[in-house]
Specification:
Chain lengths: 235, 240
Amino acid sequence: MGVSMDIARGEVVAIIGPSGSGKTTFLRCLNRLEPISAGEITFKGQLLERRVPGQPVFQLTGELLRRLRMDIGIVFQQFNLFPHLSVLDNITLAPINVRRVAKAEAEAKAQVLLAKVGLADKAEYLPSQLSGGQQQRVAIARALAMNPDLMLFDEVTSALDPEMTAEVLDVIRALANEGMTMVVVTHEMGFARYVANRLVLMADGKIVEEGPPERVFDSPENERTRVFLQAILHP
Amino acid sequence: MPVIRWVDLMQFLPDLLKGARYTIVLTFVIMAISIVAAIFVALARMSSFRLLRLPMIAYVEFIRGTPGLMQLYYIFYVFPFFGLTLPAIAAGIIGMSINYTAYLSEVYRAGITSVPKTQMEAAESLGMSYWQAMRLVILPQAARVVLPPTVNYLLGLFKDTSLLSVITIQELMFTGILLGATTYKYLTIFTEVAVLYFIICYPWALLATWVERKMKAVPEPAHLKKSKPFGWSSGPLAPA
């Protein structure tokens, strides 16, 4: 119909495309922040949503949806940190209250994650006291604290200046190298090319082209891809 | 030239102080009830269950559309016709609580909806249930927004208790009216009443201002903290 893909464990899928192409909407469908209008989504064998003619409509809600969301982490473009909590509390809030982890254990894990994203000394800071790049890295740590099987990144560097963008991309690349399954919606072509296993180009709500990044960048098959890459890479 | 005599002031003071005590106690009782009840009304008002939401909307709109005085009269003078006769204090407390709960619930509702939807999205994406997200993420943020207007409303409550005088509750206003009716020394009495109300209310008004300032304060970015330049720590041009 418009979009169809299978994502294997450990794969890093980068989704690029013009604004309004549906990249963010597609990403948000994956953890049911957006409803689908037709089709089917399955995660780890569990059906999320199905709207297929001839079959009963199904959508995951309530407790089951909550459980599923614990295994999918998402990082937003505008960070969406909890402003009334310290960095440490931001990261430990979900593990303590959702996964019922003991406070000491959660805080220890949080410190490890903070060190991993390069913010080991910022545990007691409030989000408003951090720069954009730092806040985004805290957001990544917050999502990782729940031990997700899949990480979704929604244009996470679009609100950052180039220097902060680099520090965030470093964290994401390290994550990819550790084998995390990821879907990354991005405008950062360098990242898409060198970190992703698979590049997907979306336009007007459809997948236009798909394949290994080098192949798509160097020899695009579709005209629309060519037009997009032309505009992006040679402004 | 009308004159206020010290001896008169002293004569009326004990009774007026008794009335003032009623005013204060009534205010805090109604305050306590309204602050809590308004949370439930606000949440019900935003509920997806029409059976919960619509009655709350009707209740709030009715209270907002009619005078508080009329509401008090209704509970005290009209309800007996339906078989419910309440003692004055009960009627007064219930009536004012119903009134203030309605207004406060609207303040709370505005505060809760002022928290960006993305906060709920972030919380739910981490696996929190709607109520967990409310308790841990939304309501704490809403509380910061809601606190200044709530404290201001409650300042009004101190003075609105004067309405209870019309249903024979012997708070400060009633006491003043009664004393005036028997002694005709209106100048002395009502000046004294005014001063007592001011003494009761002004500390609360200061609290309201303090709360407003406290809520506005934005924590200083740690890496931008500057040391004050020599000689600039005080004076009219010093940094605030």
